[in-house]
Amino acid sequence: MPPSLKFEEKKAKSKVDFQLATRQYQELTETLTEAGIEVIELTTTDNEPPVQSLFVDDLAVAVNGTALLTRPKSNNKKTNVISKTNEFVTVLNSLAWQVVEAPMQIHGRPVILEGSDVVFTEREIFVGIRKNGTNTEGALVVAKTFADYSVIPIPIAGTKPLKAHISVPTNEILAVGRDKESQNILKCIERDATFFFYFYLFITSKEMQANH
């Protein structure tokens, strides 16, 4: 966690409980460590990009030893984001991961790919498609990079990323929000998924935010 956060919009500042986020981060780190998982923490500074710095999964989509560097719609040209990405790549290389960078364009169209729109279930990959987030070209990059898995695009009407609506607490279990948008996304998953035996855990928006 960075020592402080800077917000591009004043409204966003009122929506983020920094003390709560810090406590949740500490609890998550402790839980993972107690479970025998090595936790690697990236360095933080006062000049971190706003909010996005809290979500490492927006830097890359990681699946079975391959990390696909994302191409978010915003902040992708800022020096501090590039520096953070370089540090992340250095860590991945030290772990012998294969690192793939998402192209800027496919078929002449720009690629937008945000890690918070990608959910890997161990069976398949869901990619949220939304107006201000990942686009169809971004989903195509995911499909090309992880060709061993079915990649299912999920249209999202709202502005929140896919992981704000669904997550994977453990194998074959999907945590799904109780709100209307999350339930619409669930209908798409039930219709288009290639694996038909998921168990669903329905949780509140507050619980989903903590899980994300």
Can you describe this structure?
The chain has helices spanning 10-15, 18-34, 79-94, 136-145, 180-192, 205-211, and strands at 60-63, 66-69, 98-101, 105-106, 109-110, 118-120, 125-129, 151-155, 166-170, 173-177, 199-203. The protein has 212 residues and is of the alpha/beta class. Strands 1-2-3 form a three-stranded mixed sheet, covered by helices on one side. It has a three-stranded mixed sheet with strand order 6-7-8, with helices on both faces. A three-stranded mixed sheet has the order 9-10-11. Helix 5 (180-192) links the parallel strand 10 and strand 11 (199-203). The longest helix has 17 residues, at 18-34. The two termini are 15 Å apart. InterPro entries: DDAH-like. GO terms for molecular function: amino acid binding; dimethylargininase activity. Keywords: Hydrolase. Belongs to the DDAH family.
Helices, strands, pairings?
Layout: H1 10-15, H2 18-34, E1 60-63, E2 66-69, H3 79-94, E3 98-101, E4 105-106, E5 109-110, E6 118-120, E7 125-129, H4 136-145, E8 151-155, E9 166-170, E10 173-177, H5 180-192, E11 199-203, H6 205-211
Parallel strand pairs: 2-3, 7-8, 10-11
Antiparallel strand pairs: 1-2, 4-5, 6-7, 9-10
